[in-house]
């Protein structure tokens, strides 16, 4: 399936070249709103995922919210089981949580992403999710780990 055939309600956006070094595979970024709580639609090609990372912040900042809008993907916090994300799935990622998210091996995946404002908000990009770890996840839509 090409990007033209992936049906979603928000724009695909441009190739996410600014953050390509932190992704395995191709992702796309469509900024939807600016301001104090910017929201972006991030789209992942099949098998694409971001590296492990941590959102930092104080005074309420640094919490991330992911809202799946199309396709099928994964979210995983360190030390926890992966969560299957389908349209309508939402995930709250507390500040300071090491995690990753991305598409299932056989599906495109889009989510809206935003981070709560506060003080000292930053991202810490870490190691990639290895092919060995990723390949242990179910590939069929609807199968949970």
Written overview of the protein:
Residues 42-105 form the Cupin type-2 domain. This protein has one helix at residues 131-134, and strands spanning 14-15, 23-24, 27-33, 39-44, 49-50, 53-58, 64-71, 73-77, 83-85, 90-93, 99-103, 109-115, 119-125. It is an all-beta fold. It has a single domain, classed as Jelly Rolls, CATH 2.60.120.10. The strands form 4 sheets. It has a 6-stranded antiparallel sheet, with no helix packed on it. The protein has a 3-stranded antiparallel sheet with strand order 9-8-11, with no helix packed on it. Strand 3 and strand 4 (39-44) form a beta hairpin. The longest helix is centred in the last third of the chain and has 4 residues, at 131-134.
Topology:
Elements: E1 14-15, E2 23-24, E3 27-33, E4 39-44, E5 49-50, E6 53-58, E7 64-71, E8 73-77, E9 83-85, E10 90-93, E11 99-103, E12 109-115, E13 119-125, H1 131-134
Keywords: Dioxygenase, Oxidoreductase
Domain Cupin type-2: 42-105
Protein name: Quercetin dioxygenase-like cupin family protein
**What does the oligomeric state look like here?**
single chain
Which regions are unreliable across 5 or more consecutive residues at pLDDT < 50?
none
**Which CATH C-level class is it?**
Mainly Beta
SSE order, as H and E? EEEEEEEEEEEEEH
**CA-based gyration radius:** 14 Å
Q: For the report, how would you describe the main beta sheet?
A: 6 strands, antiparallel
